[in-house]
Structure formats: structure tokens, C-alpha cells
């Protein structure tokens, strides 16, 4: 069994609003086993699906960068209205059934106590740790949102330049260092061929020739049952949350344009070099950036609700 290096990180510099309303151990009295129950669900899923870590990281990011970390991404569309799940960038988001499993267990033990937004945050943290990444303390106390609108989903895409992508992060009070750090989550991710096809159909001097050939082989195997194959974004350790992604893009082995741009652009390449050379630095900064992202526009106090079913708003409270 792989031995995991444990890095405990407790942050006391979180944004003032979060400090006032979110806190580590929020459920200590109302649902003492909340965090261990979420972790158990994640552990069970990881035993049969190592890719769930990447899925949860993506879900968490896509949730927080729309209306804030309010679990609006979990709402199902219905005959009357569409939800964020219908937006193009979210059509390939997955892992919802894991959140459902954790929520069902929590509702059986602590009805209407633990928010779906906190479940996403906790599950992502646990998946990161169980995949070899750092363990970090997560402040909890988020509430679930009352709106899920596909027209509000406007996320930075894989073909953007570093400066273009940074505009989206800066709008959420995230720094360039935060952006580069969080994109390091691609060390456990995959991308569909449609996201990088333009880089392999014509000569691209920024991509290693060997990688380009490998990707052409993968994408050339598209079929009726698999029209848009996927490739690992980290060719070295695709299921481990480590700093290999930064080493890879330093060797022109970035799959998506934005990934390779990180190593080439003067705005970000110093940060990339630092992470490639120092695994401990990346682990520490990744934990910090994840906590910071998890505090984006959170609902606290009496705002929002605690959903009983993460896929639907509570009755009579829907807007």
C-alpha cells in the first residue's frame, strides 16, 4: 500500500468573513461524525475509481467559480428550469453520486445539519489526501444556495492565455500564485481530445514531439462508442497529487494550451519552476489555495439553506 506523507496545515489568515462564520470543527456538536462519514464515502469510491479525485477537484472548482461555494452545481434540471449542470463546461463534471452517498448517510444520522456545500469541500480535501496530497483543515459552516442558473456559468477555458485565465481568478480575489497552484490539480486530471486537438493536428513547437505523437494515437482511436477519448494531463503519475505536473510542463509535455502556457509565460513560469523543484512547497501552497478557494462567496448564518437532498432545493424555499 502506498505510504502517504501527511502534511497538516491550519490557516488562521483566512478572509475576515470566513473567520467570523466558518470554523474548523463546525459540526463538532451538531454532527460529531460528519467529517469521518464523508471520508469513509470517499475512501470506498477510491478503492474502485482512482479518477474520482480529479472529478471532485473539478466539481469543487466549477461550483466555487460561479456563485461561490454553495453547491449550486449539484442541482438537477427539471421540466420547469435548467440548472448549472446543463451548461457546456459542466456536461462532463461527474462524481455527483458520491456526494449523494455521503449526504444520505449524514441525513440518516444528523438530519438537516450538514450542507451539501460542505460535503463537496470535505470530500475534495479527503480525496486529495488519500491520493497522496496534503491533509489540511477545512473550515466548515457553508450553507447551500437557492439559485442554479446555467447562464451564469462562465469559467476559464483550456485555450486561454495565462493573462486571460487570470482575469477570472482575480475576479474571485485569487492571486497569480493561487491560479498556478490550483491548476496543479491537473496532475490527477484527464482532458478530452476535443480540448487539445488543435495542438496535435498541426506542428506545435511548444509541445514535445513524442507527446504529440502519443496524443495523436489516442485521439485517432475515437469510435462510435468513444467519440472523444481522454488523455492524462500528467504523463508521469496521473493518479497521485504531486508536483510532477510542473516538471512535465517544464519539458514541453503540457497537454492543454493553458497548462503549457504556465511554463512559458513570464507571469507564471517562475512559480512553475519553484513547484517543479520543491515538492513540499507545492503541497503547502496547494493546501492554502484550496482553503482560500473554498471560502469564495460562501453563504453563512441564515443565508441559503441546508438541503435535505443535494440535487433539489428544499420545498417552498426555491427561487
UniProtKB/TrEMBL annotation:
Q: Which UniProt keywords apply?
A: Calcium, Disulfide bond, Heme, Hydrogen peroxide, Iron, Metal-binding, Oxidoreductase, Peroxidase, Secreted, Signal
Q: Where is the signal peptide?
A: 1-20
Single GO molecular function: metal ion binding
Active-site residues, as the UniProt record annotates them: 62 (proton acceptor)
Q: Which cofactor does it need?
A: heme b; Ca(2+)
Where in the cell does this protein reside? Answer: Secreted
Q: What SUPFAM superfamilies does the database record attribute to this sequence?
A: Heme-dependent peroxidases
Cellular component aspect of the GO annotation: extracellular region; plant-type cell wall
Binding positions (Ca(2+) 1): 63, 66, 68, 70, 72, 84
Q: What class of enzyme is it?
A: oxidoreductase
**Transmembrane annotation, as ranges:** none
Q: InterPro entries from the xrefs?
A: Haem_peroxidase, Haem_peroxidase_sf, Peroxidase_pln, Peroxidases_AS, Peroxidases_heam-ligand_BS, Secretory_peroxidase
* Family per similarity comment: Belongs to the peroxidase family. Ascorbate peroxidase subfamily. Belongs to the peroxidase family. Classical plant (class III) peroxidase subfamily.
Cited function: Removal of H(2)O(2), oxidation of toxic reductants, biosynthesis and degradation of lignin, suberization, auxin catabolism, response to environmental stresses such as wounding, pathogen attack and oxidative stress. These functions might be dependent on each isozyme/isoform in each plant tissue.
Q: What is this protein called?
A: Peroxidase
